[in-house]
Amino acid sequence: MQLTVWTYEGPPHVGAMRVATAMEGVHYVLHAPQGDTYADLLFTMIERRDKRPPVTYTTFEARDLGKDTAELFQATLIAAHERFKPQAMLVGSSCTAELIQDDPGGLARATDLPIPVIPLELPSYQRKENWGAAETFYQIVRTLAGSPRGKAMADRADRDRRPLCNLLGPTALGFRHRDDVAEITKLLGEIGVDVGVVAPLGAAPDDIARLGDADFNVVLYPEIAGVAAKWLKRTFGQDFTTTVPIGVGATRDFIAEVGRLAGGAVTDAAGRISPSNLPWFSRSVDSNYLTGKRVFVFGDATHALAAARVATEEFGFTLCGLGTYSREFARDMRAAAAQHGLEAVISDDYLDVEASIAEAQPELVLGTQMERHIAKRLGIACAVISAPVHVQDYPARYSPQMGFEGANVLWDSWVHPLVMGLEEHLLGMFRDDFEFHDGARPSHLGAGARVEPAPEMAVRASESSSAVTAVAEAAAPIALGWGSDAEEELRKIPFFVRGKARRNTEQFALERGLAEITVETLYDAKAHFSR
Amino acid sequence: MRERGQREVFCGLTGIVWLHRKIQDAFFLVIGSRTCAHLMQSAAGVMIFAEPRFATAVMEERDLAGLADANDELDAAVARLLERRPDIKMLFLVGSCPSEVIKLDLSRAAARLSDRHAPAVRILSYSGSGIETTFTQGEDRCLAALVPELPRVDNAPPQLLIVGALADVVEDQFARLFAAMGLDTVCFLPPRRAGDLPAVGPNTRFLLAQPFLADAAKALEARGAAHIAAPFPLGAEGTTLWLKAAAQAFGVDPMCFRAATAAPEARAKRALAPLEASLAGRRVFFFPDSQLEIPLARMLSRELGARLVEVGTPYLHRQHLAEELALLPEGTVLSEGQDVDRQLDRVRAAAPDITVCGLGLANPLEAEGLTTKWSIELLFTPIQGYEQAGDLAALFARPLDRQTRLRV
């Protein structure tokens, strides 16, 4: 058993619901106990959808367990087909139904409905939400994409039209999927590439049947569309993009990759694409102070990898931590972390992540809703780059992460939580102001006190107590070994770099076997580490 | 009318969302799957991060392989938890659908762990699974699990026990009202601290503050306590009848009762009067959610002049609700249980002025042009008693008010 206070992902059937809810004309019959309908709220409240998700639950109760739950499943399936008349259906089990082993797939075959019924095998006790979404999308594509006959590359080559691609991966409840699709569709249009099918978001079974008509596929979210894209390549010979266009550099690389896949037919984009403001904003002198700010990045693999690149190459930050909860992408993540001299944090236990953040002492955290709360507890600035997110990250305004406009959004939202340049300078100069001081929030974020890091920690599942110490260290009380003068000198260092200065000084003293830390030690350490 | 079919309701685990605030030194450990953990964080929203007092032990493949193993895992998880949080005085092991289906015996686990961690921590268990409980029934099971723990009292003067988690402010108001009638040994279940459990015995009379406490009442009766039948304290009338039932059971002088309640009752009626204008004649449809539907329908119809189209409830305890049912207007359509798609057909056909429903249905129905009042708010707002009667009516008037303000 894993002691869990917060889970980065839901169970796999929630991933299947995200695909079903994204699509049109698809209905999902889920064998599940009463109460599992809570998942509807994710769509109707957090994403504010104006329709019920196309999901019918059997909602069996204890008294049904003595009887025939299999019969209940079949009756529910037939009634749902009759009422909603979908073009295709998905059937599967939630975690509890998996235990009673009713085999929805076999039961559905026996009802012999006149439409495709796709059985989903989603192991709830091993896999999670994104895996469930990927598997569901793959099974839908496999079943409905038609046969490769007449869809060979040769047919696509002798055509009198612009290159055509599909956009794969956007779902319901996806982080900014709505606006990413709009942004990338616009960008592709500007470089002369048409979009055939967007799937699963907004696609009907008929659209899935047309997937093979495109020249190649654009994979926006590998966590969800990776498996389906590989199958389409094997079956229809369609290549797919591997660059995710988040950030200016990645968007340029993406355009180049699309150019290669579209067989050189891409318009020379110069002057046609609305460029991003990020490069100039980042080069303008008021961004000087951002240089080398220490940033910790965590999220799903795609967003974390993209953010690591943008943070270092486009903001000039220093990466001090990188990780993901997407175990399927652990290898890529480790390779990327190694390039920055870091060890990747691969974990779905938020207490581990909290420990790593406390350890790394960043000045900015780019993470999920969860890191927002870790950052608040530790008194660190934070911006959200990845799911899981809450209602405020399904905004009314246009806010893509991808493409050149996405880069503008990234610029604004990542710089916003940091103390602004002039204020940062003055905090370093004058320590005792009655209004502007360490305990106050950055003044552009409104009045109020900065949350002081709490030495108390949440329930910890693992035996690692390093988080507790690290957090306690980041907080005020000074450990043994610090002379009172040195302690006072330490407090003159602005809070956002104080934690780091303190760790460096202690490490310096430890390596040299110094019994006491004096003001001299503090400055010796500073000189040592700034070499 | 009884219906079977798809039910759009919460399971009993959601009771934890308010119970952990009521009993401040208790911790709730759900033994379940990732779905249970996901539900808890979706329902508890942002609170999960402020030093949480609940968590989920998520079962994995290896726990499903053999029972002994699962018990060892559970013991280890509890030991780690208590080591981390020495401030916990009471730990509830909360059963879920997966733990019920694999028949993991949590009551035995609780007994075993209590022996190990006594006297520092009491460890109890109850089921909040969807297959056994609907939404507020989770609180019922939790309180029923507390009853055997209550100290025994034999030859004490008769005492009054109020059962059901109430907002602190409401609890204090009731205590003052009873004191004004001369009943100053009134206790509440659940208490605010695990160490303050009220005593129970043959001289205990208990009043239910909530309509969903069937099991807790049964457990109290098994300990010799006697139930005082009454409608529930919603609205001016309901509160008076509820208080009066207790006053009569304890032989309070009617003049003394009037003296204690006349002023607040008049205040409640004054607070309700302006809201009658917006609610009188409005047609209200209740989807089943918390078992509060029947008392709420009674209050809306009798005190505010609303008309009842259909009153759905997940479960109808005929004995506990007898007084309420007697007060409902003649010919009210009641439905117990749910087949959500057929109920949606009925609500569309009836086109009521206000539809009281859960958050899974509220926005979709708004988009179809129906005005809704999301029902979960009724569990998270102080609504009982005289001083809250106006606030309760305002909860139903607000969506109608909003309709008339918005111009886009």
From TrEMBL, chain A:
The keyword Oxidoreductase applies. One of its GO terms (biological process) is light-independent bacteriochlorophyll biosynthetic process. Pfam families: Oxidored_nitro, PCP_red. [4Fe-4S] cluster binds at D36. Residues 12-418 form the Nitrogenase/oxidoreductase component domain. One of its GO terms (molecular function) is 4 iron, 4 sulfur cluster binding. Residues 482-526 form the Light-independent protochlorophyllide reductase subunit B-like C-terminal domain. Its EC number is 1.3.7.7. Keywords: 4Fe-4S, ATP-binding, Bacteriochlorophyll biosynthesis, Chlorophyll biosynthesis, Iron, Iron-sulfur, Metal-binding, Nucleotide-binding, Oxidoreductase, Photosynthesis. InterPro entries: ChlB/BchB/BchZ, LI-POR_suB-like_C, Nase/OxRdtase_comp1, P-CP_red_C, Protochl_reductB, Protochlorophyllide_Rdtase. Component of the dark-operative protochlorophyllide reductase (DPOR) that uses Mg-ATP and reduced ferredoxin to reduce ring D of protochlorophyllide (Pchlide) to form chlorophyllide a (Chlide). This reaction is light-independent. The NB-protein (BchN-BchB) is the catalytic component of the complex. Belongs to the ChlB/BchB/BchZ family. HAMAP family: ChlB_BchB (MF_00353). This is Light-independent protochlorophyllide reductase subunit B.
TrEMBL record, chain B:
It catalyses: chlorophyllide a + oxidized 2[4Fe-4S]-[ferredoxin] + 2 ADP + 2 phosphate = protochlorophyllide a + reduced 2[4Fe-4S]-[ferredoxin] + 2 ATP + 2 H2O. It holds the Pfam family Oxidored_nitro. Belongs to the BchN/ChlN family. InterPro entries: LIPOR_BchN/ChlN, Nase/OxRdtase_comp1, Protochl_reductN. Keywords: 4Fe-4S, ATP-binding, Bacteriochlorophyll biosynthesis, Chlorophyll biosynthesis, Iron, Iron-sulfur, Metal-binding, Nucleotide-binding, Oxidoreductase, Photosynthesis. Pathway: Porphyrin-containing compound metabolism; bacteriochlorophyll biosynthesis (light-independent). Binds 1 [4Fe-4S] cluster per heterodimer. The cluster is bound at the heterodimer interface by residues from both subunits. Protochlorophyllide reductase is composed of three subunits; BchL, BchN and BchB. Forms a heterotetramer of two BchB and two BchN subunits. Its cofactor is [4Fe-4S] cluster. [4Fe-4S] cluster binds at C11, C36, C97. Residues 11-397 form the Nitrogenase/oxidoreductase component domain. Its EC number is 1.3.7.7. GO terms for biological process: light-independent bacteriochlorophyll biosynthetic process; photosynthesis, dark reaction. This is Light-independent protochlorophyllide reductase subunit N.
